[in-house]
Write a structure and sequence with these properties.
Radius of gyration: 17 Å
Mean pLDDT: 97
Number of strands: 0
Largest sheet: none
Number of domains: 1
Helix content: over 70%
């Protein structure tokens, strides 16, 4: 099970790296005015989202494997599971935003995306505290 845990951590870290970077690209895209820059940002958004999605799936698979293998329970685990569901929703919403940007239909400014970028940071902080401290 330690191999499963190691791969879970590797894929979670990689998934979060993508979720930290993709909204930063959205910030730049929302501010971009040059057609070449916009085209480059669209390409980056699409490639990053397509790259990080299978990583997210692997993080979830290894996490479920750990959960089922160890039979972990408790209130902290339920809270973590809820936050993972929120993170999955965030991930899919990022995919929707990639499509909106690709179709030149973004309606939000760079300030929205600067705040939007903080969501995975807060989730990561909460999950690490839940898993490490197990407060309930």
């Amino acid at each position: 099970m330690l191999w499963v845990k190691a791969f879970h951590i590797i894929f979670v870290v990689s998934w979060f790296a993508g979720l930290f970077y993709l909204p930063r690209i959205f910030v730049n895209h929302a501010m971009a005015t040059e057609p070449a820059e916009i085209a480059r940002l669209k390409l980056m958004e699409g490639k990053l989202y397509r790259f990080v999605t299978p990583i997210a799936v692997l993080a979830i698979i290894f996490g479920l494997w750990l959960w089922l293998g160890y039979g972990i329970g408790g209130g902290w685990m339920h809270a973590k599971f809820f936050l993972v569901l929120v993170l999955i929703a965030y991930h899919f919403y990022c995919g929707r935003l990639v499509k909106l940007f690709a179709a030149d239909q973004n309606k939000r400014g760079h300030v929205f995306y600067r705040w939007f970028n903080e969501v995975p940071v807060l989730i990561l902080m909460a999950v690490v505290i839940l898993v490490t401290v197990k407060p309930f």
